[in-house]
Amino acid sequence: MEEDIYKTIAAPGEETLFKEKNSKFFGYAFPVSNEDEVKEILSEIKKHHHQARHWCYAYQLGTEPNIYYRANDDGEPNNSAGMPIYGQIQSFSVTNVLVVSVRYFGGVKLGVGGLISAYRTSAQMALEASQIIEKTIDEHFTLAFGYPDMNKVMRVIKEKNLNIVSQKMELDCQITISTRKKNAPMVLEALEGLYGITVKSV
Question: What is the pTM of this model?
């Protein structure tokens, strides 16, 4: 896979259900971009499944080399729930994603091996029920220039197919643009070649 592409999910996946010896495991996958979103989603799921016994989850945020993840067993034996869920996030190669498996205990103990297998299957089903998409890792630059240089700047933005993230037109102009990481050096060179314009990485 190209270095400036990562995979994530497009939208929350459908609820899935896996049953093992009377225990029920409801699986969910959500796109997330920060820990606050993770907390909000978890509290909603706990409200929705307030009679469940365990709400186990794992999430991963960021792209190489700045990846952050967490796995939570929520009262199940150590590493029998959170890590098997996280293992599925890794095997689907997705990031910026939260996978939750909610367990209703069915009266029959599954043992650690059974739990690992059940949580792994629940996470796999949740990710299979989600639409996985590719996104590019983008770099952002802020350009500052005077009005007379507007045409030059706009020409480069159009030629290089850059995205305008924000613009501020006051006494002078400020535009923030984004481009794919692999194109960034070339874009930077083109922008820095424009006389009278300051370019800053964001």
Answer: 0.82
